[in-house]
Amino acid sequence: MSRIGKQPIELPVGVKVSIEKQNVTVTGPKGILSRTILEYVSIDHTDNTLTVNRADDSIKSRAAHGLTRTLVSNMVTGVTKGFERALEINGVGYRAELKGEVLNLSLGYSHPINFQLPNGITVEVDKMTKLLVKGIDKELVGQTAAKIREFRSPEPYKGKGVKYADETILRKAGKTGKK
Known about the structure:
Order of helices and strands: EEEEEEHEEEEEEHE
CATH class of the largest domain: Alpha Beta
CATH superfamily of the largest domain: Ribosomal protein L6
Low-confidence stretches: none
Largest sheet: 4 strands, antiparallel
Number of strands: 13
Number of domains: 2
Shape: elongated
Structural class: alpha+beta
CATH architecture of the largest domain: Alpha-Beta Complex
Number of helices: 2
């Protein structure tokens, strides 16, 4: 049995869960999230806990057991606390600016990059070089941060580019001088 899948999910005060066949909807103070779960697992709702059960011991149901529990747990956390991902911009002249729902990035190209933020995602810009991507959907927050990083990923010689705040860039030595 999955060590993660068998753990119950505690529901905080103010969180409501509705389960209709394979559709799970979680409502909380920050918003509403819904997801369709696989048919290999089922979710039991008793009092303030959710329990994920699998149908049988087939490979697919064992694989979906822990995954489904983690996805539903992330939904509960998202509607109560939310998720965030921090990014840093390094480089001379590299900067970010937020205009409404559009993030304007100057990353050393001949043109500025205008990135339209997805629905449900907010970005805070601090000192034009620090970004904080926030939202209630963990998957969407991570995907948006990855797209922003992809515009100019950090290079190994000077470390210029967009990187995660907790990321360590392995630096390479440059060329040696002529003799």
